Amino acid sequence: SFSKGMLQRVGMAQALLRNPRLLVLDEPMSGLDPDGRSLMKSIIQREKEKGTSVFFSSHLLGDMEELCEDIVIINRGKILFSGNLQQLVSRTELEFQIQWRESSSEKIYSENVKEPLLQFRIDEIRAQSGQIFRLAPSHMGLEQAFSRLVQQQRDNPQILKES
Predict the structure, then answer these.
(1) In the chain, is it the N or the C terminus that has fewer CB atoms within a 10 Å radius of its CB?
(2) Residue 84 in 3-state DSSP?
């Protein structure tokens, strides 16, 4: 008769009873309200600090980005990536945010451009009398890196051989 969130809490309490050296958790944040999610994250962080190895699966990539040192991305039963977030980000195409205004207008334009097209886009903007006032790499989190890696796999199935 417990709610899903309460079952998650009870399951975690049971898992911690004997001070395990390894915790294997399946979707530990699923069904939790914001307070429950915060509590679960702090428990996982505390266990990591104690030296417990914590292995968990999740579709909530923001949680994984916040809690995990190493990640494994599996898509359709294939391991697409195994390593830390920085390694993943370096394997995906970098994007830059360009902000500019047309010289005859005060309207500000902004767009993200993939690295291979960056110089071409800059030249286009300048050719149309655009004044670029900001050019910066876009922050890429785990969710965006995951999406790009999966898309790269769809576009180029050979990527599996490079993992």
Answers:
(1) N
(2) coil
Helices 4-16/34-50 angle, 10° precision: 10
Q: Are 23 and 54 in contact (CB under 8 A)?
A: yes
**What confidence category does residue 24 fall into, taking pLDDT thresholds of 50, 70 and 90?**
very high
Residue carrying structure tokens 């977030």: 85
Q: How many CB atoms lie within 10 A of CB 47?
A: 21
Residue with tokens 């428990």: 43
**Is the torsion defined by CA of 86, 91, 92, 98 positive or negative?**
positive
* Cα angle 120-122-128, degrees, rounded to a multiple of 5: 105
The pTM score is: 0.64
**Contacts for 152 with CB less than 8 Å, ≥ 6 apart:** 92, 159
Per-residue pLDDT of 54-71, as tens digits, reads 999 988 888 888 888 888
Q: How far is CA 147 from the centre of its chain?
A: 9
